[in-house]
Design goal:
This protein has about 240 residues and is an all-alpha fold. Helix content is about 85%, strand content about 0%. The radius of gyration is 27 Å and the shape is rod-shaped.
Length: about 240
């Protein structure tokens, strides 16, 4: 899993720098690469604040990619799973149905397994087990989202802090020189703008991934709820409840 995440991060970074490379060649000619342009802006924006923003981007992407990979693995064909369970229950093989659910990866199969495991105690016990274990699986699906939200909030704050520091530097230079010429304040204003841009870009990238992850979780939860209702119906139809 770590190797997959590392490869995905390398791919994202390569695409990111490649995009800058194209923009740089269009703007400055073929002699200037995107990495050089990005590095120049990074240094010009005061590396003390830009480094924190970069750390937020890297860690946020790591959590996002880990969640996306995990959720894709957790996605289950619920119709096919219920059909296989129905076949076992039609033969009166509750243990076989439990084995089918246990051997299938994903939170939906785990919830169905818990329901089948409590089938001997009646439909109320099955529904209670499904609800209880469904809450546990929801917590596992949402694992790490709080950190992504934190990085989305912190990145623009760090950018705005750099903006404030840059403006303070600009006013300090005006006070020291006693002149309001553009050359005096340009450095501080450049720092202010660059830190803001990098912070906002980081937050936008992570927000897109965050919304995609939330949509994946909602889809899995909806399938989990539908499969849970379907399981109770299948068990009642096959007269599993005594």
């Amino acid at each position: 899993m770590r190797k997959v995440i590392a490869l995905a991060l390398v791919f994202v970074c390569a695409s990111y720098f490649g995009a800058f490379d194209v923009l740089a060649q269009e703007a400055e000619g073929p002699s200037r690469t995107g990495f050089q342009l990005l590095k120049e802006y990074f240094i010009s924006g005061d590396w003390r604040f830009m480094s924190f923003v970069l750390v937020c981007l890297i860690l946020g992407l790591a959590f996002c990619i880990e969640r996306i990979i995990t959720l894709n693995i957790a996605t289950t064909n619920t119709d096919k799973l219920l059909s296989r369970i129905d076949e076992r229950l039609a033969d009166g093989d509750v243990s076989g149905a439990m084995e089918v659910a246990k051997s299938t990866p994903g939170p939906t199969a785990a919830v169905l397994y818990e329901g089948l495991r409590n089938s001997g105690d009646g439909p109320e016990a099955v529904e209670k087990a499904i609800v209880s274990y469904g809450s546990v699986q929801m917590g596992l699906l949402e694992k790490g989202l709080v950190w992504i939200s934190l990085f989305i909030a912190i990145a623009p704050m760090l950018g705005f802090m750099g903006t404030v520091i840059g403006m303070i530097q600009a006013f300090d230079r005006i006070e020291a020189v006693g002149d309001l010429s553009p050359s005096v304040v340009a450095g501080g204003i450049k720092v202010a703008l660059l830190t803001t841009v990098f912070g906002l870009v980081t937050a936008i990238i992570l927000q897109i991934f965050y919304n995609y992850i939330i949509s994946k979780i909602d889809g899995i939860v909806n399938k989990m709820e539908d499969a849970s209702i379907g399981l109770v119906d299948v068990m009642a139809r096959n007269k599993v409840f005594k």
